[in-house]
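P.,

For your records, the input lines for the assembly:
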Amino acid sequence: MSTPLLEVRDLQIALAGDGTTYNAVEEVSFQIGRGEAFGLVGESGCGKSITALAVMGLLRRPLSVAGGRIILEGEEIQDASPAEMRRLRGRRIAMIFQEPMTALNPLSPVGRQIAEMFVLHQGASWNEAMDRAEDALRQVRVPSPERRIKDYPHQLSGGMRQRVMIAIALACGPDLLIADEPTTALDVTVQSEIIDLMAELCAAKGTAILMISHDLGLVANMCRRVAVMYAGRIVESQVAQAIFATPRHPYTRGLVDSLPRLGERARHGRQRLREIAGVVPSIAAYPSGCRFNPRCPAVSDICRSISPEVTALAADGLVRCHHHG
Amino acid sequence: MKLGANTWVGGALVGLALTVAILAPWIALTDPVMDANLMNAELPPSWEFPFGTDAQGRDIYSRLVYGARISLTVGIVSQICNSLIGVTLGLTAGYWGGWWDDLVSGLTNLMLAIPSLVFALAIMAILGPGLVSLVIALGLTAWSYSCRIARAQVLSLKSQGYVQAARILGYGDLRIMFTQVLPNILGPLIVIATLGMGGAILSEAALSFLGLGIRPPFPSWGSMLSEARDQIRSAPWLSVFPGLAIFFTVLGLNLLGDGLRDILDPQSTTRRA
Amino acid sequence: MANVVPTLLAVVALVFLLFSVLPGSFISGMNEDGRSAIDPAVMERMRKEMGLDDPLPERFAKYVANLAMGDLGTSFRTREPVTKLIGVRVWPSLKLVLAAMAFAICVGVTLGFLAALRPGSLIDTVSMVGAISGLSLSQFWFGLMLMYVFALQLQWLPSFGYGDGGLRNLILPAIALGVGPMALLARTTRAAVLDVLNADFVRTARSKGMSERRVVEWHVLRNALVLVVTIVGLQFGSLMGQAVVVEKLFAWPGIGSLMVDSVFQRDMPAVQGCILMIVVFFLFINMLVDMAYVAIDPRIRYR
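Structure tokens returned:
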């Protein structure tokens, strides 16, 4: 396989608390190839968002990268200087965030916020940049873009604002687009439109996507490979179809099972929604051994004392469980 | 509950001021009004007169100590008055709404349009100078802010489950207001009261300085400053010490208020931002 | 903004009531210690002259009518129209208040910004300690100290008075008056800037690859300014109040010192006139602040 676009090896992110340091994220490793769509799934608080921020170099106190390597096209960037990281952001790696409501500057017209990208990275004049901003809006299928560029964020709907964010992120043709729960705050009807738009534009430009979500179904539809995170660790990673067909980790199995499916009621009659018992542990109180053990249906003694190692699976997959398979 | 440096330093300063005020008769060296010896006029600080003497030969230290009583009493009483008015109006306005709310809001807007010191001056103009009119003037003109905050807090709590539950259970309005709502909004209101006391002391000093509040020969920190003003060239220390007394007391109240805000009002509803 | 007229009317009504309803308040012997210095027959004649025995609504109507024509009554003390007395003092007061506010904004907002951009640093601590001290100062005492140091000891500046209306006389009173608002502005600006620096859209700006300096210039400034403008508006009210005392201290010929003198002399028409003038000032400046607000924040335009 050719050099992956992004390789993360044994990433460790520390959280400085009152006097002690916690490891918010540990031993996280994954690879994303050129133009590939990769999904990172997990419940709130599992560390997927801060992993993304670490790749962008946007971690702020009290979070910081404490170990591991982040390699972009063969170059290590985890220790890069702020100036070097700035050169990467927007140009080679871009990010869109969850809350379109608050992610845009309320006092600046959206056209200008898109135009900023061209002025910053391509030395365009403001006039040129505004024209190109209009084109960008057209690409993300915002109607009447010539009028919209003068609008302020509060005049647009959530879906429109997210389209603006996508336009900003893809403006300079980055190699990697990180999308952190881009549709969670949007209406259901709009969600699939946004996802389709992202997939189409990235495929057209050859941009890789790191898709972060708590929605396994959404991610599996869009991405070629999926990694599942729990309590700061990656517990399973496989090709999308395999994750659904043959989940190897009890947590993944629980996630897959909890998805309601069409036609089930006809087949099995009315049933309760299946859920995974228990709650995600707080970072200060991670269980010893396998972190999932309090909630695992397949738990045994070894799970409570020894943290499971990574077992490789077919097609670059991996699983972290004593009882996988 | 971590108490920051603010609370400790502020509390210490306020405690010191209160202690001085309470213990005044015991820690003063002379009678602040009667012990006037013109032979001792305008002496700089010395062992006998730690802060010097004024134009009438009275010991500044003792006057300062007794002055603490007056300034602090005025500050505390007028702030309590303001808080009572403001909280009652705000609480009832927020709870009952309707025409009463409109009336109170209109009144609050009106009060906010007139600077409080100006309003206090106007009232003093009508009532004449003196301690009583001072307290009335200060106590009736600075309630708008606590009214606003109390009302805003009540409005946000009104929709909370336990208020509605109390209603359904048949609790009377007054009972709900005082047993359910009030305890929950006390936090920000205590912060405002603490900070307001500082403002009241400053206002009293200003009015006494102008000659409208406490009149000579009675010592209030403000009236001491008005007397000192004419001697600024010959006896500058007369102006320094009362001013410092005011400064440290108000600083203590401000620090304490800030510190209390961190504990009692973490969402900063009282921040004037 | 639409609030201005009803508020003004309400203030007029309140002022009128205050001074008319309380018995004996209007012509209370016109003497500082409350004793009647005028023989009762003269007082009776004055009461008739000023129509003080007429029914209240009639008096109010006359009062408002007079106001509409710019007549604020006649001063007891000088027998001149109050409007004339005040008119000559408007500009000095305005100058003082604006100078104080300008000082407060320039120094306060700058300090607040610097403190927020380097939180926890020396400049942050020093600024904030300075700010809370500034809030605890008695402004007239501070003025007195300034006067002592800069005018009497160092003799750099005149110690009081308006002088020829030049800058030298304005400096000390403006600083004394402005130190309180400056302190509050420093604190509020710092809080506002810190808030904005943590906002989502600033994170977006950083993710675009902007340098921190650009982030501050293009995104933080305007947003923090919105909060600052609010405070400036609110501060003008208390500034007017404090101006009264500072004017008296520095013998500044403004509306404030006129009001204080009139209160002493129980010159009620003058007191009434001063209060109204001060409130008009305040409402006018509030209106300007509101307009500035609309210019900065587009969200308000599209209500």
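Two observations worth noting. Residues 95 and 154 of chain B are 6 Å apart (CA to CA). Chain B touches chain C through 48 residues (CB under 8 Å).

Regards
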